[in-house]
Amino acid sequence: MIERAEPADAGEILTVQRAAYLTEAQLYGDPYIPPLVESLEQVRKVIEGALVLKALDGTRIVGAVRGRLSGTTCLVGRLVVAPDRQGQGVGTALLRALHEEVAEAEAFDLFTGHLSEGNLRLYRRLGYRETSRERMDDHLTVVYLRRTPDRSPPPR
């Protein structure tokens, strides 16, 4: 089940976020990536000021994603899935729910690291296309992706 997160969910979302991003930190050799050093108060403020969806398994939060409209573009961030639930469709369900929740968006933008093959496969499967790459340092190139919803009328 997917629903909007509430400020009281911040601690559990932060726990899932840290667990999910540990593999990213190891992959890039950087234990100080922003999702790992974000504070509880920062997560709570994001939940209060942006759209944050959570995936539930019973009462347990097993994933989350953030979305914020900037003009007509939804900026997607911090898609996280608990390590024991990765590969089970939670990330796909969260992104699809975000796409539906922000249906007025003309585009959805996100980014990930170039070595994050699982993330890149997921995003491409959901219609995201690479728009650019930016080399940050020797071990990280950021890949920017965009999804533009099909707004053509259905065939007659």
Explain what the structure shows.
With 156 residues, the protein is of the alpha+beta class. Helices cover 35% and strands 35% of the residues. It is built from 5 helices and 7 strands; from the N terminus they run βαααβββαβαββ. It has helices spanning 10-28, 34-37, 40-49, 90-101, 117-125; strands spanning 2-4, 51-57, 60-70, 73-81, 107-113, 129-137, 140-147. A 7-stranded mixed sheet has the order 1-2-3-4-5-7-6, sandwiched between helices. The longest helix has 19 residues, at 10-28. The mean pLDDT is 93.
In short:
This protein is of the alpha+beta class and 156 residues long. It has 5 helices and 7 strands; from the N terminus they run βαααβββαβαββ. The chain has a 7-stranded mixed beta sheet, with helices on both faces.
Which terms would index this structure?
globular, 5 helices, alpha+beta, 156 residues, single chain, seven-stranded mixed β-sheet
Distance between the termini: 34 Å
Q: What Rg is obtained from the alpha carbons, in whole angstroms?
A: 15 Å
* Strand runs, count: 7
Summed up, the helix count is 5
Sheet-strand content, in percent, reads: 25-35%
- Secondary-structure-derived class: alpha+beta
* Strand order of the biggest β-sheet: 1-2-3-4-5-7-6
State the oligomer: single chain
Mean pLDDT: 93
Uncertain segments are none
- The general outline is globular
One letter per element, helices H and strands E, the order comes to EHHHEEEHEHEE
Pfam family, one: Acetyltransf_10
Domain N-acetyltransferase: 1-150
Protein name: GNAT family N-acetyltransferase
InterPro entries: Acyl_CoA_acyltransferase, Bact_Acetyltransf, GNAT_dom
